[in-house]
Amino acid sequence: MTQTSAYMARTNQFIEKIDAFMDRTEMWMQNQEATLKSLENQVGQISQVLKSRSMGGFPSDTEVAKGATHEQCKAISTRSGKVLKTPTENKQGEATVANSKATCDTDSLPW
């Protein structure tokens, strides 16, 4: 009879361990469900924000600095760093440099 009682004791321990494991698994699944619902809400919020955003534009409003005009550009250089001659005005009043792709040196701008 001692073998039967030892077997029953081990069986009861095994059942207790299985119950504890099932409780932990159930808790883990509940946590996962809550996390998934939170992620679904966040994706929905992002979707609503993206729907309301205009296509082809920047996500925030851009503002032109007060008094910002192209006349404030004092230096022109090429991508290679070569400094070009002082630009001349054409008939439309636009500053041009003959046959070159010039960019405005933004380091000299006041903003």
Report on this structure:
The chain has one helix at 2-52, and strands spanning 76-77, 88-89, 95-96, 103-104. With 111 residues, the protein is mostly helical. It folds into two domains: 1-51; 72-106, no CATH class. The strands form two sheets. A two-stranded antiparallel sheet has the order 1-4. The radius of gyration is 36 Å and the shape is elongated. The model has no long low-confidence stretch (mean pLDDT 76). Residues 85-111 are annotated as: Disordered. Keywords: Coiled coil. Residues 22-49 form a coiled coil. Residues 97-111 have a biased composition (Polar residues).
Strand order of the largest sheet: 1-4
- Tell me how many strands there are: 4
Structural class label: mainly alpha
* C-alpha end-to-end distance: 94 Å
Share in helix: 40-55%
Q: If you average the pLDDT, what whole number results?
A: 76
Number of helices: 1
Provide the gyration radius in Å. Answer: 36 Å
Q: Proportion of β residues?
A: 5-15%
Q: What does the main sheet amount to?
A: 2 strands, antiparallel
**Which segments are poorly predicted (pLDDT under 50) over 5 or more consecutive residues?**
none
Helix-strand pattern: HEEEE
How many domains, as an integer? 2
Could you say which overall geometry the principal axes of the C-alpha atoms support?
elongated
Describe the structure concisely.
46% of the residues lie in helices and 7% in strands.
